[in-house]
Design a protein that fits this description.
Length: about 170
């Protein structure tokens, strides 16, 4: 008999009142949970995409400095799930998901202009985020598991949401 995976708790929101765009992932992978850092896996394209959009090398910065830069530029981070059971890091293994309070995003960020879902599992919550009356994007996952999209193709898709919300030129 296989033991049920332990209930995992996600990371807190990185959101400020002046946040213009929030990127919502599904739930942190094992490496991100272990390091308590969003997008900690070295092959994840999240930090390289932001580095390319903003023309700065975020990966060379300490994590807390990266978060400061994000917030200064109007970008927020969070996940659609506050907790779940999962073995490994794949979204397909998520069980017993407990949602975050996505309906309350505007209370946390009254300056919000849009919401970007990082990947398909996150996008399953588009009913909730769409009800906020803001533009919502379903962006290609930055996960290394999403190998069918090239870095350049991901970057172009992400640029659209960043430009539309004033988070990138």
């Amino acid at each position: 008999m296989r033991a049920e995976p332990a209930l995992l708790t996600g990371l807190g929101p990185v959101i400020a009142p002046h946040t213009r765009l929030v990127v919502l992932g599904s739930f942190p992978g094992a490496r991100s949970l272990a390091e308590q850092q969003y997008y900690a896996h070295p092959r994840n394209h999240f930090w390289p995409i932001l580095s390319a959009l903003w023309e700065i090398d975020l990966r060379s910065m300490p994590y807390q400095q990266r978060l400061t830069v994000l917030l200064q530029r109007g970008l927020g981070l969070w996940d659609v799930y506050a907790g779940c059971r999962r073995e490994g890091s794949l979204d397909s293994a998520i069980e017993d998901a407990r949602p975050n309070d996505l309906a309350g995003l505007l209370r946390q960020a009254p300056g919000l202009r849009g919401i970007a879902h990082n990947g398909g599992e996150s996008a399953r919550s588009m009913r909730v985020t769409g009800a906020l009356g803001l533009p919502v994007w379903r962006l290609p996952s930055t996960s290394p598991a999403n190998a069918s999209w090239s870095f350049e193709r991901k970057l172009a898709a992400w640029r659209e949401a960043f430009v539309a919300t004033g988070v990138a030129a």
